Amino acid sequence: MDVAIIGAGGVCGRQLLFQTLSQRIVSPDARIELVTHRGGQSEREMWGLRGDAADAFDEIAPTLDIVFDPHQITAGVVVVLAGATISTDPNVPADRTALAATNTAMFTEYAEALAARDHPPIVVVQSNPVELGVKIFSRRLPRRSVLGAAGFSDSLRFGREVARDLGVARRDVRALVLGEHGDRMVPLWSQLQVRGRDAAEYAEQVRAGRQLSDLPDEIRAGKAQMLDLVKSGDIAAAYAYVESLPADVRFAVKPFFTHFTAGRTTEAATANAAAWLVSMLINGFPLMVSAQVRLEGDFHELHGVTAVPLILSPTGWSRTVAMDLAEDELDLLSASVLPTD
User: Fold this and answer.
1) Segments of the chain scoring below 50 in pLDDT
2) What CA–CA distance (Å, rounded) separates 121 from 78?
């Protein structure tokens, strides 16, 4: 199956291209479409990126094509990594409203072009706000062919922090994060599983009487304190502070620490989650993942866009996975839903 990367020239798009090639996710007889717009630095750099990737992976690389017109995208799986992101300057306030306004036009342009095809593709949204992207694409394409990768990347991050606390490998942890890709993330303590460990005892120790309803405020406070330390120039202290946070706050704050100290967004982790999902879709792995989708009562009778557990299929996602949630988890999940009306 062919793959298209919208925004292939950006830091995350480049990472996804190189991870896709190095992991041999796309077969040599297929195509990867590097999608960008004409004019300026983006167009110039795309030719160099294409040549560099071809040189590095000549023996295993599929055909690499540059695509400038959204209507010329033909791939069966399309990953959206284009658009604006928040500034990496810690002194510039993060404005999600402005980000949404900027990226709405980009989401709409590509959604309308892909919807005009005879056979619409599977669309994996990894640009922010991811819920908005899923909302716009799922209005024009079959909703089961559109999913957001942020729920999966959040779950990987949460699992990593749990594994770190317990001194085990992340592969020994099954951790799910539902909800929005933002302050209203919903780490599912009720569903946490750790091979060889008592997950319930660990969860009780981490939560220590803390309420899930307070988590959004804890995340906001954690980000604010981290940013104050970064602004002061004491990066080591900021890192130590983030590492001292409970796992369910730490996994949400740490990507912002990376964003404001590395000089760019969390490119490797962002691309890694998208690469995993593309591999599952191409190879037909029937695994449960958390991803943002448009719900029509499919999960706890919720309507709108948010991340829920689901099963992938060769055409996108086939169904959500029934799951008994704790009352506080369901309350926060319900509050995270982006309406589609």
Assistant:
1) none
2) 7
